[in-house]
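Hello again,

I reread your note about wanting to compare the complex against the isolated chains. To keep things tidy I'm splitting this into two emails, and this first one only covers the full assembly. Below are the input lines as submitted, including protein chains and any nucleic acid or small-molecule components. They are followed by the predicted structure of everything together. The single-chain runs will come separately.
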Amino acid sequence: AQKVTQAQTEISVVEKEDVTLDCVYETRDTTYYLFWYKQPPSGELVFLIRRNSFDEQNEISGRYSWNFQKSTSSFNFTITASQVVDSAVYFCALSTFSGSRLTFGEGTQLTVNP
Amino acid sequence: EAQVTQNPRYLITVTGKKLTVTCSQNMNHEYMSWYRQDPGLGLRQIYYSMNVEVTDKGDVPEGYKVSRKEKRNFPLILESPSPNQTSLYFCASSWAGGPYEQYFGPGTRLTVT
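Full-complex prediction:
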């Protein structure tokens, strides 16, 4: 069985602060995929990133960066210089190699205050 | 425009009255899936389909049925809804053969009284 834990239920920051969202996962598979999705107040789910278990390179996309550490089974997400528009629920998810099963974490509600 | 559509978007019904939530995608995706979202629990997979006529249970299949007769459609059926099925439901699709990004529908807010 696989499991994703996002221990931070809610985070509140002031605009321009950096914020890191934690994600810890459990799986017995040696090949797997990790995802982050964003759910803004409008409710839709927006794909942010996918990372496979063989690629531990960190990734940066604008103000977003992801730190994948297999040794600690973590896939953390950092927003640099946060903005009000970053306010959303963020989900970390884990997929089997076949892609048939996608397990989500509980989600972290991020509120960025002006 | 590439999209996943769900209908209805909002539904209030009574216990025991059968209902169907439709899901359709126009991207020719082989894989489709249903999730329910509940506060504090994230999204949980109900059923998924790797291709036409191929469906399988996810983590929380009890009380739900699905069918995949056509590639583009994947309806979710609640034969006898109960209040504990009150939730926000999402349909998603992606290319099969690997865990690609899933494209999600807009969601269906279901209330069972």
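For quick reference: Chain A touches chain B at residues 4, 6, 9, 33, 35, 43-45, 47, 50, 91, 93, 95-107 (CB under 8 Å).

B.
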